[in-house]
């Protein structure tokens, strides 16, 4: 295994790499052996590879590795104290680690980030994503291609150390080969999604999370076993940011499989009673001659088990109304998601049927879109939201103190004309200013408007400076503006205190609020947001284009 890792490093440009397998009978001799190996001729080499040790007979495997390596490397070893772990260590960072190590061989604590940063310095000579690629590809690609049997023995020994019991080597071999077949997909995913601006310590955290989760993918064949493994390797997702978690999941999804074994109905379909289905594919097709077990695999095994697990997660009251499928006759099924089934059968021919209506999930989708969906304007593509008058007033009051603003009620934004009647009605209401095409006019001094040109006309409902004394006046102005603007109000920021000019608020900025689901730019209106907008057989939620139902007969 180590030879494979060394060869991979050399292929990426490492000039010379020293490696050695350290085998000692007990945990007491491990620190001395590792210390001696590290100190031997370390000046001659570019870097070192440190693989996590398996100590036979150890009662606490994780602590043995951690304490053994920590005695030589200081607290940087904690970052790599995992089974099948590895690290790339430069000569300089090795000296730094030795200086920080306690003379008595105990962990010194402190800030391990700096040491970890130096520890992966050698990675900077390789591709930008090698730190992450190495955590996964070294584990599955180099090791497995160089010594598949050795890796199998190592994994089986690890299961024994963790007390997970024996596992079928045929199944484990299939899982490894399935992962190897997708190494190119994993590398492509790393290249596509990795953030080139991540610092090396962030990349190191990501690589550790990928490797630790990969160990669980290899070792665990049930939820209970995953719990046991997590107590040791402690997948470090809690230390990752959201974007990093998404990146780790994108890579791991390329390797995850649905795996199961021993079903008499599918023996002709799968070899050795074991089947692996990749979860990252958009479409998996099961083919075979008649009677080979295609339907048994898809419906009686995968769908039945997925539906059974989903139903078991419901409350006893809900389960009494659903049909619980019998457990398929298999040894195990791992990695299975909730499933739906669309079977090939004779049904009522309705040209308006969809996959959602046939599978009876259409009504649930309608509720989901209506209750948690965010409507968007088809004209502008921007989200449409609504606020109450009191909520709008709170938003305005929350502007920086000293902000000078105009509260505007829109009359028109897209139509042409003179608007003499509208202006006369506004004059009767007592308002004295209008904003027309970005210019504020006295209502008695408005120039003639061109009828063939579109105009933007607003009523200046109020001009106010945000202060604590004038905050009580804002709710009344908001209500008046909403009344004139038919549920829409524009708040124009005329000026801001110099220390309050930010990217969020700037002079000349216009804030648009609405108490209805109306797009303030295009005027698109969706009315009351409800599930009635999502039936496939009604035109209420359809876009304004020509459409028709057509049935083609041959």
UniProtKB/TrEMBL annotation:
Swiss-Prot/TrEMBL keywords:
ATP-binding, Cytoplasm, DNA damage, DNA excision, DNA repair, DNA-binding, Excision nuclease, Nucleotide-binding, Repeat, Riboflavin biosynthesis, RNA-binding, Transcription, Transcription antitermination, Transcription regulation, Transferase
This entry's Gene Ontology molecular function terms read: 6,7-dimethyl-8-ribityllumazine synthase activity; ATP binding; DNA binding; nuclease activity; RNA binding
Q: What is its EC number?
A: 2.5.1.78
Pfam families documented for this protein: DMRL_synthase, NusB, UvrA_inter
Q: Which InterPro entries match?
A: LS, LS/RS, LS/RS_sf, NusB-like_sf, NusB_fam, NusB_RsmB_TIM44, P-loop_NTPase, UvrA_inter
Give the top-level enzyme category. transferase
Supply one GO BP term: DNA repair
Primary location recorded for the protein, binned into one broad class: cytoplasm
Which pathway does it operate in? Cofactor biosynthesis; riboflavin biosynthesis; riboflavin from 2-hydroxy-3-oxobutyl phosphate and 5-amino-6-(D-ribitylamino)uracil: step 1/2
Q: Which reaction does it catalyse?
A: (2S)-2-hydroxy-3-oxobutyl phosphate + 5-amino-6-(D-ribitylamino)uracil = 6,7-dimethyl-8-(1-D-ribityl)lumazine + phosphate + 2 H2O + H(+)
Residue ranges of domain NusB/RsmB/TIM44 in the record: 132-255
Where does the UvrA interaction domain lie? Answer: 388-494
Coiled-coil annotation: which residues? none
Keyword DNA-binding on entry: yes
Q: Where in the cell is it found?
A: Cytoplasm
Family according to the record: Belongs to the NusB family.
What's the protein here called? 6,7-dimethyl-8-ribityllumazine synthase
Q: Which organism is it from?
A: Hevea brasiliensis (Para rubber tree)
């Amino acid at each position: 295994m180590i030879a494979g890792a060394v060869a991979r490093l050399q292929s990426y440009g490492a000039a010379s790499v020293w490696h050695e397998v350290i085998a000692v009978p007990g945990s007491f001799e491990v620190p001395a052996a590792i210390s001696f190996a590290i100190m031997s001729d370390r000046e001659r080499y570019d870097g070192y590879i440190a693989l996590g040790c398996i100590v036979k007979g150890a009662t606490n495997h994780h602590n043995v590795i951690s304490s053994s390596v920590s005695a030589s490397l200081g607290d940087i070893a904690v970052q790599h104290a995992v089974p099948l772990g590895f690290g790339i260590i430069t000569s300089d960072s090795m000296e730094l680690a030795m200086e920080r190590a306690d003379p008595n061989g105990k962990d010194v604590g402190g800030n391990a980030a700096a040491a970890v940063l130096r520890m992966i310095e050698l990675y900077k000579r390789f591709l930008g994503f090698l730190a992450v690629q190495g955590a996964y590809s070294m584990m599955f690609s180099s090791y497995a291609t160089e010594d598949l049997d050795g890796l199998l023995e190592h994994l089986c020994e690890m299961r024994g150390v963790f007390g997970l019991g024996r596992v079928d080597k045929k199944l484990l071999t299939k899982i490894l080969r399935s992962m190897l077949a997708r190494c190119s997909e994993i590398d492509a995913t790393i290249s596509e999604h990795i953030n080139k601006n991540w610092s090396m310590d962030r990349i190191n955290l990501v690589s550790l999370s990928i490797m630790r989760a990969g160990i669980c993918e290899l070792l665990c064949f049930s939820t209970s076993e995953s719990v046991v493994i997590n107590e040791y390797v402690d997948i470090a997702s809690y230390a990752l940011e959201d974007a990093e978690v998404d990146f780790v999941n994108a890579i791991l999804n390329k390797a995850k499989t649905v795996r199961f074994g021993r079903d008499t109905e599918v023996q002709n379909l799968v070899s050795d009673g074991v089947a692996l289905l990749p979860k990252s594919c958009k479409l998996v097709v099961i083919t075979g001659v008649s009677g080979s077990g295609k339907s048994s695999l898809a419906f009686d095994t995968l769908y039945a088990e997925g539906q059974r697990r989903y139903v078991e997660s419901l409350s006893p009251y809900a389960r009494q109304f659903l049909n619980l499928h019998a457990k398929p006759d298999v040894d195990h099924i791992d990695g299975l998601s909730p499933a739906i089934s669309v079977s090939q059968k004779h049904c009522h021919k309705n040209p308006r049927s969809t996959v959602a209506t046939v599978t009876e999930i259409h009504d649930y989708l309608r509720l989901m879109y209506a209750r948690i969906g965010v409507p968007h304007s088809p004209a502008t593509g921007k989200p449409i939201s609504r606020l109450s008058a009191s909520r709008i007033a709170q938003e305005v009051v929350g502007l920086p103190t000293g902000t000078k603003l105009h509260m505007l009620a829109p009359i028109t934004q897209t139509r042409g004309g003179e608007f003499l009647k509208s202006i006369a009605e506004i004059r009767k209401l007592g308002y004295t200013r209008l904003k027309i095409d970005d210019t504020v006019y006295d209502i008695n001094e408005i120039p003639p408007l061109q009828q063939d040109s579109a105009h933007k006309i607003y009523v200046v409902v109020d001009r106010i400076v945000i202060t604590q004394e004038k905050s009580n006046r804002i709710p009344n102005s908001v209500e008046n503006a909403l009344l004139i603007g038919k549920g829409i109000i524009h708040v124009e920021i005329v000026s801001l205190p110099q220390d309050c000019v930010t990217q969020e608020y700037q002079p000349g900025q216009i804030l648009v609020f609405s108490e209805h689901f109306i797009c303030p730019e295009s005027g698109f209106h969706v009315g009351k947001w409800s599930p009635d907008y999502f039936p496939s057989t009604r035109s209420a939620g359809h876009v304004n284009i020509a459409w028709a139902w057509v049935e083609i007969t041959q």
